[in-house]
Design brief:
alpha/beta; Rossmann fold; L-2-Hydroxyisocaproate Dehydrogenase, Chain A, domain 2; 2 domains; 6-stranded parallel beta sheet; 42% helix
Length: 313
């Protein structure tokens, strides 16, 4: 049986724990937070739904006791402040980088064999930071962002086409940011039919634009970062690892020459299984998509430079 620790019992972390519990394949979930009583309270609340919802996963909440993370198979990092309205992901770097670095170090001190799943923002840079400061092999550090962005893409396509999401296949690659993500509208399909055959160019353009500001839209509406979809996206990634599904998921992973890039963590499709990232999947991008990917990578690299300025990598 598997053990998962989730660092950060805020909205995203608690949602991730709740979704994983309902999947009912993990024996133990540890929810850890720095604020006294928050993780304990949310874990207790979730455990009181166990009979009602039919899951047997045990959920424990702790305050800053990293020894509780011991023997975790996966550690999910959601720590850091959420994005406020009008705040860019870049503005989060200074605050969240030091938090994430300390979380990675404390987690691996107690669970040295764990795979790290990063949800903290700015996610591409926090994934890169986690890889560098942990010194883990690149397959063991994975950012969740592409799963979330792709889910939003599919949702907007579903609304536009008035077709069930389950029939739509679509993917977002590139950086997890409002200006850096690349919804691959050309490759999106309903079953085997390209969506570009089912909508006008104007409709397709609107779906792409709505997807790219999907996070900012929610932040403006609710006054903070979203949590249901990000938490569920994290849970799906954890499930793929622990159940060794070998499914292809768009994730933030370290590249070593794929797509013409190196020494960067950015969103691309990857085979996810028991070993974490088991293969980076290379898809044929047209010139427009490749140019957009290169531009996205340059933006991510510029954010990573802040880590060097702060002497964190």
């Amino acid at each position: 049986m598997s053990k998962v620790s989730i660092i950060g019992a805020g909205n995203v972390g608690a949602t991730c724990a709740n979704v994983l519990a309902h999947m009912n394949f993990i024996s133990e979930i540890v929810l850890l937070d720095v604020k006294e009583g928050v993780a304990e309270g949310k874990a207790l609340d979730m455990m009181q739904t166990s009979k009602l919802c039919g899951f047997s996963t045990n959920i424990t909440g702790v305050t800053h006791r990293y020894e509780a993370v011991a023997n975790s198979d996966v550690v999910v990092i959601t720590s850091g402040i959420p994005r406020k309205p009008g705040m860019s992901r870049e503005e989060l770097i200074g605050t969240n980088a030091s938090i994430v670095k300390s979380v990675v170090e404390a987690s691996l001190e107690n669970a040295p064999d764990a795979i790290l799943v990063v949800i903290a923002n700015p996610m591409d840079t926090m994934t890169y930071l986690s890889l560098k400061c942990s010194r883990l092999s690149k397959n063991r550090v994975i950012g969740m962002g592409g799963i979330l962005d792709s889910s939003r893409f599919i949702s907007y396509l579903s609304q536009q086409l008035e077709i069930k999401q389950s029939n739509i296949h679509a993917m977002v690659i590139g950086g997890h940011g409002d200006t850096t993500m690349i919804p691959l509208i050309r490759l999106a399909t309903v079953d085997e039919t390209p969506v570009t055959e089912l909508m006008t160019p104007a409709q397709a353009q609107k779906v792409v634009a709505d997807t790219m500001v999907g996070g900012a839209t929610l932040t403006k509406l609710i006054g903070t970062s979203a949590w249901y979809a990000p938490g569920a996206g994290g849970a799906v990634l954890v499930r793929a690892i622990l159940k060794d599904t070998k499914e292809v998921l768009p994730c933030c992973v370290a590249l070593s020459g794929e797509y013409g890039h190196d020494d960067i963590c950015i969103g691309v499709p990857a085979v996810i299984g028991h070993n974490g990232v088991e293969q980076v999947v290379t898809i044929d991008l047209d010139k427009t998509e490749k140019d957009a990917f290169d531009k996205s990578a340059a933006s991510v690299r510029s954010m990573n430079e802040v880590l060097k300025e702060l002497n964190l990598v």
